[in-house]
Design a protein that fits this description.
Elements: E1 16-17, H1 24-28, E2 41-44, H2 48-60, E3 65-68, E4 84-87, E5 94-97, E6 102-106, H3 111-119, E7 123-124, H4 135-141, H5 148-151, E8 158-164, E9 170-173, H6 179-185, E10 194-201, E11 203-204, E12 207-216, H7 220-230, E13 238-246, E14 261-269, H8 276-282, E15 289-290, E16 293-296, H9 297-301, E17 313-318, H10 326-335, E18 345-350, E19 372-380, H11 386-400, H12 420-424, H13 428-438
Parallel strand pairs: 2-4, 3-4
Antiparallel strand pairs: 1-2, 5-6, 6-10, 7-11, 8-9, 8-10, 12-14, 12-15, 12-16, 13-14, 13-18, 17-19, 18-19
Helix pairs in contact: 7-10, 10-11
This protein binds flavin-adenine dinucleotide.
């Protein structure tokens, strides 16, 4: 029987889409087509009072609440069957205060909105590598990207936030106001409230020297052994993630390389002048292709948006690792060439440098002593390949687990409840206590959920 949402449309200023609406299917679609959820209603909120009103309506009517930022979550945690989706996509305004080097960002903005708005003022905030990802989900989970070694995680640059709490009240939080809440939202995901606005500290940077340097798959062991020793010793300004990928069948990649499975490193140097370290990196081995060039940062950060558009099947898992021993390299060399489809990939993100100079207990993110965050992503448009994507990701991540730290990044997971504790690591118990303080009834439970402490 359909769940009634009578009266919701007149409760908020924004649009409400119900199952009877002509655009319901379009509106409920998530980035990951492997997830198919049918909410009772989608409320397109226009401001924080709308968010608070929609939330109150949902609670009073016994609806489960989901919050949707960019809708990119692998597990589809921006939506919920038979519940209320509070959609923030209309709340995407960005205000940049250039003299103060600050950006105020709506809770539903996308990374590309933030990247271009700050770029126009000669500034940037370190975020993820695909422009269509939501600032909301990415930031609350942590935020890994091209500039993590140079400027830290996205949360390391968060100065303040406006949050709608589980009781519908609206609070400002920073290191002085509601400090426990501020601690918890920097890595604790969407467990503590709905963030309607983020204030970020910005860095002066417009152009980076960036691009992939790609090698034959047979070079995997040599490249990975060199990379694991080289990068942690390199200056913070140089970032680069090791990857397995298939060369996309499109320009600017040479046709003779299209769809060839390769290994490589996607380099990003914060600044235009080629450093000694980057020169040394580019001279390693015999690359098939060296695409490093000066590029406006938002251009590099959106370069793969088209390739990874919405509607593909995705299966994800992540780990944190401190070392990549030879035995782990052998595992990578086995699973990399076995990528099940050409869009499938493995990225080994470097999360040391600036990100490692924050203490494990300074905010919710508890893996500051990790050097790498591998992500295993099975991707393909064909639903018939879903099983193959899942099997490869699970097999690969299970085989790497013995070399890991017992957890993985909250934003790189499907819905696997037995993995949740590991995502928050040593900070789980403190997060559960703060959850009791701010959301004792677990209103915000459509996420990698932290149960309130008893
Ligand atoms: C193609 C692709 C590339 C990616 N690249 C990176 C990367 O480079 N680095 C990285 O760190 N991650 C990356 N991710 C992972 C990404 O961080 C997560 O998928 C994240 O959950 C996406 O956030 P979203 O707002 O788009 O998602 P949504 O599905 O809208 O939301 C995800 C979760 O966050 C909550 N949420 C979202 N916004 C808010 C808010 N304003 N207030 C409260 N809760 C909120 C939701 O309730 C949900 O639980 C990538 C994902 C994809 C699909």
């Amino acid at each position: 029987m359909a769940v009634s949402v009578e009266g919701l449309a007149s409760t908020i200023k924004g649009r409400v889409v119900e199952p009877s609406g002509a655009d319901y299917d379009e509106s409920r679609a998530l980035y990951n087509a492997m997830i198919d959820k049918r909410p009772a209603a989608i409320a397109y909120c226009t401001d924080e009072t709308d968010v608070a009103a929609a939330l109150r309506y949902g609670i009073e009517h016994g609806l489960r609440i989901a919050v949707r930022g960019g809708g990119h979550n692998g597990a589809g945690l921006g939506s919920v069957d038979d519940g209320l989706v509070i959609d923030l996509s209309a709340m995407n305004a960005i205000e940049v205060d250039a003299p103060a080097k600050m950006a105020r960002v709506g809770g539903g903005a996308l990374l590309k909105d933030l990247l271009w708005a700050t770029h126009e003022q000669g500034l940037t905030v370190p975020v993820g590598i695909i422009g269509t990802t939501g600032v909301g989900g990415l930031t609350l989970g942590g935020g890994i990207g091209h500039l993590t070694r140079a400027f830290g995680l996205t949360i390391d640059n968060l100065a303040a936030a406006t949050v709608v709490l589980a009781d519908g009240s609206i609070v400002q939080t920073d290191s002085e106001r509601e400090p426990d809440l501020f601690w918890a939202i920097r890595g604790g995901g969407g467990n503590f409230g709905i963030v309607t606005s983020f204030s970020f500290r910005c860095h002066p940077l417009t152009t980076v020297l960036a691009g992939p340097v790609l090698y034959d798959m047979d070079d995997t062991a040599d490249l990975l052994a060199w990379y694991r020793d080289f990068l942690p010793a390199a200056p913070d300004e140089l970032g680069g993630f090791f990857a397995f990928l298939s060369i996309p069948p499109a320009p600017p990649f040479p046709e003779e390389l299209h769809l060839r499975k390769v290994c490589g490193v996607a380099w990003t140097q914060a600044g235009e002048e080629e450093s000694e370290a980057l020169r040394e990196a580019r001279s390693f081995g015999k690359p098939l292709l060296d695409g490093v060039a000066p590029v406006p940062l938002p251009g590099w950060n959106t370069a793969f948006d088209e390739l990874y558009g919405p509607g593909d099947q995705w299966y994800w898992r992540g780990e944190f690792v401190r070392e990549v021993p030879d035995e782990a390299i052998a595992v990578h060399a086995e699973y990399g060439p076995a990528m099940p489809t050409w869009k499938s990939t493995m990225h080994l993100y470097a999360i040391d440098g600036a990100a490692s100079r924050v203490g494990n207990d300074e905010m919710a993110w508890s893996y500051r002593d990790a050097i790498w965050a591998p992500v295993f992503a099975g991707v393909d448009p064909d639903p018939g390949n879903a099983g193959a994507l899942r099997d490869w990701v699970r097999g690969y991540s299970d085989a790497i687990r013995p070399y890991g730290m017992g957890g993985g990044y909250v934003n790189f997971h499907m819905d696997e409840p037995d993995r949740v504790r590991g995502m928050y690591g040593a900070n789980y118990d403190r997060l559960a206590r703060i959850k009791t303080q701010y959301d004792p009834d677990n209103v915000f439970n459509v996420n990698q959920n932290i149960a309130p402490a008893a």
